[in-house]
Please model this.
Amino acid sequence: MGRAILSAAAEFPGLALVGAIASKNSAVLGRDSGVSAGGAPNYLPITSNLGTVLPRAHVVIDFSTADATRENLHACRAARKPLLIGATGFAAGLESEFAAAAHDIPLLIAPNTSLGVTLLIELARTAARALPGFEIGITETHHREKRDAPSGTALALAAAIREGREGEIPISSVREGEVVGEHTVRFAGAAEELRLTHRALERGIFARGALAAGLWLASQPAGRYGMRDVMGFKTVT
Model:
């Protein structure tokens, strides 16, 4: 995702990259981030120290591992920098820290930054309320190296559905091949069925969605946001 964001950044004339961060053990530390992303040199070396670039940043986009979420959150809160977290699988105990940070900075947590998935979640929420007698199930498929299951997107879909429906929503997870991401919500009624599906064909959709959301977040007041806020479905707390 870091490489995808670097590649897509040129599509956003209102955005200028000021830092590229990798883990302390990354093999690409010190390399030109533009070259590492498969493009032309941008003379922005990859570093592991977020603190050194925060003074120049107006917003931080974090697609690191769940293990790094707390450290990055604390750094951005201390520096009063807006933060978009696209990582998934972090500990539930972080929710209290998210709530506390949102008093000081704009914080957007997005298990999926695709605009299409954001709309899928809204459609699933609406369908659950409109079809009270239908059985509901979620199926999600990702590449074999994705660590968390169910995916953060599937969990977000289930949470949206539960706003209009009591009970647990069954989720089936598949990890195979090089599938970027596919999510289907199935509504089964008497002699009829409704399926809502989103397929990600390449990772660039998440990068472009994250960059658009980051530009939006940079001008927002402190608070907790989601991708639906970016698209005009207000949820800020």
The beta strands are 20-21, 46-47, 60-62, 83-85, 106-109, 135-142, 171-175, 181-189, 192-200, 223-225.
